[in-house]
Write a structure and sequence with these properties.
It is built from five helices and twelve strands. The protein is of the alpha/beta class and 213 residues long. It has an eight-stranded mixed β-sheet. The protein is globular.
Length: 213
Amino acid sequence: MTRLHRTDAGSRSLSTGSPSIAQQKASLRQTLRKRRRDLGRPQQRHAARAICRHLMRSTLFQRARDISLYLDNDGEVGTRALIQLCSRANKRVWLPEVTQSRELRFLRYQSGDKLIANPYGILQPQSHRQCIEVMDLDLVLMPLVAFDRRGMRLGMGGGFYDRAFQGVGKRQVRPKLVGLGHGFQEIDCVPANRWDKPLHAVATERGLRRLPD
C-alpha cells in the first residue's frame, strides 16, 4: 500500500501551515498520475487482463445486465477486454458522455459504433445514442487516481462521477460503484470532502475487494 497523506478525511486545515484538502488532493494526483502514466505496456496489459478475470468471477458482474465502463486515458486501467467480455456475456455497455453543462450522461455503446472526442480529448459515443438513467445501471466501473480501505476514491478533479451518483447510497441495490486501479494506488487515507462518493468495491490486479458500508 502506498503510504501517503495520513489525514482525517473530513477535516479542514486548522492552521495556515497545514495543506487544505484541495492541496492534498492536487499533490496526490500529481504523484500518482505520473506513476500510473510511467507504467510500461506489459504492466498495463497484465493489470487489465487480471482485473477482467477477477470481475468475470464476481457476482457483481455476473448479476449485472447494464454496465457502465469508460475508455481509458492518462494511464488508466484499460477497458477494451472488459467491453469485449460484456459483449460475449450479452450485457449492455454504457459509456459516459460529458455534456455542455459538465454533467455525465451514459450512452449505449456497441462494438463498431463511431466515437468522438469530448472537450478533454477522451472518446465518447455520439449524443444521439440511447441514454440510460443512472439508477437503472446495475454496475458502474470507473477509473481512479487513488483509493483507500474505506472506499473513498480520488478522481481527476472534475467531480463528474460524484455529481452523477450523488443520490446513490452505500446500501442501495444498484448501481454498484466499483473503481478500477492498480494496487499501488491504494493509500492510507484519501482526503475527502463531504460530497465525495464512496465506492462499493475496488478491482486491481490483486483481486476484487468489497468495501465496508
